[in-house]
Amino acid sequence: MKLKALVVDDSRTMRLLVMKNLRDADITTFDFVEAEDGEQAMLKLKKQQPDIFFVDWNMPKMSGIDLVRKLRSLERFKDTPIIMVTSEKGMDKVIEAIDKAGADDYISKPFTPQIFRSKVSRLVELG
Predict the structure, then answer these.
(1) Domains of the chain, with CATH numbers?
(2) Strands 82-86 and 105-108, how do they pair?
(3) Residue 127 scores a pLDDT above 60
(4) Residues whose CB is less than 8 angstroms from the CB of residue 59 and which lie 6 or more positions away in sequence, other chains included
(5) Is the pTM of this model over 0.70?
């Protein structure tokens, strides 16, 4: 099974690192789409239907947390898994992302392929 993943981070290096860790996690095959911020992600969604989102918190134009809220307000993405991948480590941020904005899970930087395997496997049925 191939999953389409939208990786949203203002750092190209971090986007590449997320994609590498997902490939190294050996969960499934991914087809990656990249965006530099929430605004660019929303534009890409006009032509894309991702199976899962990986979203950084701190980005220009539209932050990750605002993107999560926006995605959850749209019927077509209300059940699509969203994982925040961020350097924000405070429990208050985790609570805001998951309980208030609607993210499904939270990965703090730095991360490993094993962390991605654990989080993604729990969220996506790989039948």
Answers:
(1) 2-110 (3.40.50.2300)
(2) parallel
(3) no
(4) 8, 9, 10, 36, 37, 38
(5) yes
